[in-house]
Amino acid sequence: MQVHFGFENAVGIRNPVVTTGSFDGVHIGHKTILNRLNEIAEQIDGESVLVSFYPHPRKVLYPETQGRDLQFICSQKEKIVLLEKAGLKHLILVRFTLEFSKTSSEDFIRKLLVGGLNAKYIIVGFNHHFGHNRQGDFSNLYSLSQELDFGVEEIPEQDIHHETVSSTTIRKALKEGRIQRANAYLDHQYMIIGALGRGSNMFSQVGFPTLRVQIEEAGKLIPPTGIYAVTLFWGQCCYKAMAVVSGGCTAETLQEVNVDVHILNFDGILHSDEGTLLFQKAVRFDLNLLDQNILNEQLTYGLNEVDELIY
User: Fold this and answer.
1) pTM value?
2) Domains plus CATH for the chain?
């Protein structure tokens, strides 16, 4: 997958089949759109393209209200990994500013997607809106397609067990520690990618040496304080592990969030590197970080629970 920063750098894309949006989490609904992009691209000898924005529009338009406490399922790095796994060929990251927000829905399609990218097909999700004040919708897109001669398609909304899937519903599940429900919506395990460093002495002192995962992007949504069954991909190896989260989504600053990982049945040397955590299940939430005896009991219980799980 190629990543382009701005429309001006996205050149030479063959017969672009385009969609737009944040795609936070790259959940099952997003994957349905991406699969359709790739299907059509194959039919017309084209390439699939996602146009996304950074920072998130709400952070720019409503910094003191909707955007102030907005948290994200994926960091930018994690999103790129997931989009590549989904088979996307091109990601165009457009810097979202107050000036860019004034682009009308017609100009966005006419001048940027068709005039700039030469889009041959544009696919949107159910009830998708775009352009200044979100004035553009599928009916506007269809009208322009007749004039400018490009194909259009709207993908129906997705649901799991009769619940509509959205990034908002997934964020809610993660904030409640409902990892398995979030994973079902995502159609993959919730992940954290970050540098691994020396873990907390607090856990080593009670017999559970850990690595600490660095949270590299402010706004990354971390599940609440507790113990979680995780898979750690580290170097060329995959480990069954127990993650201990303190702070999580309830913390007011990134500095108050800690994610420590204890690897099961590991007798090697803990060293710094980048790792990927895949969350499987929450084990317990009543974590006492102040009393060493209680913490030892809780971690022992968590370790036994994690060890018994089939990943």
Assistant:
1) 0.92
2) 2-164 (3.40.50.620), 189-308 (2.40.30.30)
